[in-house]
Amino acid sequence: MKQGVLYGVGVGPGDPELMTVKAVRIIREADVVAVPDGQTAQNIAADYLEGKEILPCSMPMLRDKALLAQKHDEAAERICALLEQGKTVAFLTLGDPSVYSTYMYVHRRVLARGYEAQLVPGVPSFCAVAARLGDSLCEGAEPLMIVPASYRNADACLDFPGNKVFMKAGRSMGDLRDKLRARGDSAQMVENCGMQNERVFRSLDEIDPDAGYFSVVLVRHGKDKQI
């Protein structure tokens, strides 16, 4: 029996209309659709999941690396069992699978076990945020740095001579906002971009320090520059 293939499918940041044609095709053709904890990715692709076998995969946000590795191993083993049966599996992930996606931990494990796994790119959240704000991320020779807001060396990143994207700001938002204000940087933020509960903050002063996990901050260096 021919082994199945695993596809890590980026479903975009939240708006179902931003799903790519390829993502939709892969989901429709898949025998099984694997979904991580939470309903966000599943909700985005809901129109294409009717009648599909759904495989829930526990992908918790944990600091315990041993337990985290165990969860990734378990997900990979369950998926490999399906691939061994010749089934095609589409694993849904928010945004693009190559950008801060926990799916990649499973992807590497499946490849290491000798099975085929492919990535299906999706629209990254920061690109959707820039579009929502109606401006570019970078122009001309401007450099761009993409950083998780929880990164322990985020302060050093602020000294980077260029524009920055801080992803998944959430609990770090209040501290980040204060640091940006002290530096005189300008910033805008979109929370839950493309979702029903989306919120747009067009200045640093407007930004809610209690914004949720799916918050993306765009920063331009220098107080006179505007996003």
UniProtKB/TrEMBL annotation:
Alphabetical list of Gene3D superfamilies matching this protein: Cobalt-precorrin-4 Transmethylase, Domain 1 (3.40.1010.10), Methyltransferase, Cobalt-precorrin-4 Transmethylase, Domain 2 (3.30.950.10)
Pfam families noted in UniProt: TP_methylase
Domain spans labelled Tetrapyrrole methylase: 6-203
Biological process, per Gene Ontology: cobalamin biosynthetic process; methylation
Pathways involved: Cofactor biosynthesis; adenosylcobalamin biosynthesis
Recorded superkingdom: Bacteria
Name the UniProt record assigns to this protein: Precorrin-2 C(20)-methyltransferase
Source species of the chain: Butyricicoccus porcorum
